[in-house]
Amino acid sequence: MVSDRLAIETVDLWKRYDGIDALRGLDLQVPTGSICGFLGRNGAGKTTTIKVLLGMAKATRGVARLLGAPAVDAEVRRRVGFVSDEKDLYDYMTVDEIIAFTRPFFPKWRTDLEQKYRQKFELPGPRDIKDLSRGTRTKLALLLALCRSADLLILDEPTAGLDPAMAEDVLQALVGHVASEEMTVFFSSHQIAEVDQIADHIAIVDRGRMVVAGALDDLRDRFQRVQLVFADAAPEVRFHAPGVVRVTRDGRVLTVLTREREPLMTEAKALLPASIEVSPVTLKEIFLESVRTED
Amino acid sequence: MLFRPNPSSGVPIYLQLMEQVKHAIATGAMRPGEQLPGMRKVAEELVINPNTVAKAYRELEHEGVIELRQGAGAFISENAPSKKDAEKFRAAQEAVAVTIDKLRAKGVADEDIRRLFEAELLATEGKRGE
Amino acid sequence: MLWHKAWRETRGRFITGLLILTVLSAAKVYEYVVAQRMMPMAESVLSGAEKTPLGDAIRDAIAVQREFRGFIWYNSFRDNLTQLGVLFAVLLGCGGLLAEAKKGSALFTLSLPVTRKQLLGARVGIGLAQCFALAMVPPLVIPLLAPVVGQSFSIIDALVHGLCLFFVGALFFSLASFLSTMFGDIWRPMLIAIVIACGAVAVQLVLPELGLFRLMSGETYFRTGALPWMGFLATAVLASALLYSAAETLERRDF
Asked: Where are the domains of chain A?
């Protein structure tokens, strides 16, 4: 069944809030076992997607599935961990109390991991949550998500507002956890560098729709910048090859940004340029180009 | 001994890891028969995706550079590039040094030298043969 | 653990209410002694007054308060416990998931493997138990303390009045709970509930049969000894309808 291979799946997902379509036919597929980075501009629909997946908001139309089950099913959340972007927990409880509160909901709670992360994150047991710094609250939220033996972890901007050292701690905890426990991670982020670092899949959403999605290595392979230098003025040419994102003409230089290197190379060579240079495109550029071309 | 790959360089991380391992063998930092650090450990220390590490190790095994032994770990294979190849590597380093000196003497800027090498490599990629 | 969370979130209000109502109830017992000393003076002032509706009402009020049972009914059940009871019932009903949303932890709660009905159920369960305690404990101190001032008060009376306080209190609790599924702040549900309470007072003046606060004070039982079964039934049905609506509203809500 397709659903077994997909930890998260949405098909033609629409969500309307007060007359505004936050999601407009979103198709998302997150393969089981992957670490998937979810990128998009502010207001593109990242948080809305996550809310629909976790049953916090109801889809206006379309399908949303988590681990094969409908997103509105409360029971599937027993296998899912979540860290929100606000990382707000119960202010009036202490660290110990919120762990004690969360534990009984998850029969597969790992007390060994709880001990490990309490120490590793240096969480002060009797301290009130309202007295914790943002970084410590993030680590606490992470502990609460990681100890439940979840099959899927969903994080909304996990390192937002954290200094680089804390951010690295969080990423390391994630990567370390994924290395030893089988799980899928789906995290939204504005930090392209961290997505580059730990994700093996990405999904870029813009204005409520998916614009780029797939394995990161694959995308890096196929997305290329091809620079053609001509002896005389560069020709004005319309490329027929699929996947051409942007063509810039500057004197004798034609620069083509493409998602599909191979078809373009064939066409480019036929133009008989003086030289062809191919250079890789960074994820940042892939992102910027993908969300800009819709303008 | 393995250091952090550069995620923003445009070169896939698994390739960078493979290069690091091959480079370590070529310079003698790792010898045939020696054990590589576990995949889990590498992922955690370098803070990169475990699947990426797994892919790098798999490709290295495919190329015969390392051996993955069930339950024991990853080991540099006996017929991996050895000191002989380390010498070949050093000879190559010298050849490159000579070429760069020549180009610099001709007034070619360092940035251009780099681009020329990269362009030539990319353009003649397929010609090297599988 | 949801019940424990609901308890933690409302225990301040509950304990405050329980203390205030119990102390007031106890205080009234002692006040009887003081009031008795002033009674002959009040009677002598009024004996010469004309027969007007107001004059009659005042005479009736004084007559009722001459006995201990009447004094307690007039000043505690009809007054303090009813008014403050409504206030605390409403206070207990406010809050909940929407209020959590304003503070930010709602997403954590909603990400747990629990349905919204379960979340509401825990809050309502704790809230109704608290309303029950607030309704029963203050009346029950009266039979306990009455002997100290040389009086006696029937435990049955205390229990029946407690029930009257509970049923109407539960109704206001349900109203506040329902309003809390529509508004996220604490103030609007409280304000609207109090406005409705005032409305109920107005209705009571015009149509005494539909007197919600007459029911709450247990007036029929006090005067005639008859248990207000219809009143209990009506408030229970209304409260259930409100709680059902709260559940449905919460179910549809987007966070």
From this structure: 6-218, 223-293
Q: Are the beta carbons of A34 and B14 separated by less than 8 Å?
A: no
Comparing CA positions, the residue from A223, A155, A148 lying closest to residue A194 is A155
Q: Do A197 and B48 touch (CB under 8 A)?
A: yes
C168 and C213 Cβ atoms separated by less than 8 Å? yes
Q: Which residue of C has its CA nearest to A88?
A: C105
Running DSSP on this structure, what letter comes out for residue B38?
A: P
Interface of A with C (CB under 8 A): 17, 51, 54-58, 74-78, 80, 82, 84, 86, 88-93, 100-102, 104-106, 141
Is chain B touching chain C, with at least 3 CB–CB pairs below 8 Å?
no
Q: Which of C9, C108, C114 sits opposite A89 (nearest CB)?
A: C108
Please tell me which of A114-123, A272-281, C43-52, C65-74 the model is most confident about, judged by mean pLDDT.
A114-123
- Domain A223-293 fold: Alpha-Beta Plaits (3.30.70)
Q: For residue C173, give both structure tokens.
A: 């609790």
ipTM of the complex: 0.88
Q: B42-80: per-residue pLDDT in tens? A: 999 999 999 899 999 999 998 888 988 888 888 988 876
Q: Residue A140 corresponds to which tokens in the numbers above? A: 């606490």
Q: List, for residues C198-235, the tens digit of each pLDDT value.
A: 999 898 888 887 788 888 888 888 888 889 999 999 99
Nearest residue on chain C to A74, judged by CA atoms? Answer: C113
Q: Which residue has the higher pLDDT, C149 or A145?
A: A145
What burial class does residue A159 get, using C-beta atoms within 10 Å of its C-beta: 0-12 exposed, 13-18 middle, 19+ buried? buried
**Cβ-based interface (< 8 Å): residues of B facing A:** 7-14, 39-40, 43-44, 47-52, 55, 115, 118-119, 122-123
Cβ neighbours of A88 in C, within 8 Å = 103-105, 107-108
H or E segment at A239?
A: none
Using CB atoms, pick whichever of A76, A88, A100 lies closest to residue C104: A88
What DSSP character marks residue B36? Answer: P
Is any Cβ of chain B less than 8 angstroms from the Cβ of A284?
yes
- pTM beyond cutoff 0.95: no
Superfamily per CATH, domain A6-218:
P-loop containing nucleotide triphosphate hydrolases (3.40.50.300)
B chain contacts of residue A281, beta-carbon cutoff 8 Å = 10
**Helix H or strand E encompassing A129:** none
Q: Which chain A residues contact residue B12 at CB under 8 A?
A: 216-217, 220-221
Tokens 């109090």, residue? Answer: C194
Mean pLDDT by 10 residues, chain A (295 residues): 76 92 95 94 93 95 94 95 89 94 96 95 93 92 95 94 91 91 92 91 94 89 87 84 86 87 85 85 87 65
In which element (H, E) is residue B50 found?
A: helix B50-62
Distance separating alpha carbons of residues A286 and A190, to the nearest angstrom: 14
Q: Which two tokens stand for residue A4?
A: 């077994």
Residue A247, Cα to own-chain centre: how many angstroms?
28
**CB of C59 within 8 A of CB of C39?**
no
